[in-house]
Amino acid sequence: MPDLQALHNKYKERGVRVVGINSWEEGNASAYFKEKGYSYELLLNGETIGEMYQVSSMPTIYIIGIRGEVIYNGVIPDTKLKVLIENYLTENEM
Question: Most exposed residue of 8, 22, 50, 56, measured as fewest CB within 10 angstroms of its CB?
Fold first, then answer.
């Protein structure tokens, strides 16, 4: 989650949205987010989305392009994510 917050901080001004999706959890995700100071978006009760994307482990990371295409999926944040996002933004700047 700290890695996702870092991505949010770095790219929010360039139109990139980081959204956490809480699924299959019994704790209070909103309180945890607030306690940790995370400021990216959080969707609660995201089980349907998890099923749609066939999420089988947590955390799972998806990067979805501006046309709705999945450009990355993986189980953990990867050092290559920043390079992938930078390249994608450069190729798709308006």
Answer: 56
Residues, the chain, total?
94
Residue with tokens 């996702």: 4
pTM: 0.76
Q: What are phi and psi of 16, to 5 degrees?
A: -85, 130
Q: What is the CATH number of the domain that holds 28?
A: 3.40.30.10
Q: Decide: 84 and 71 in contact? Cβ < 8 Å.
A: yes
Write the pLDDT tens digit of every residue in 61-85.
788 888 888 888 887 666 788 888 8
Total of domains in the chain: 1
Domain around 49:
2-91
Distance of CA 42 to the CA centre of its chain: 9
48: amino acid identity, one letter? T
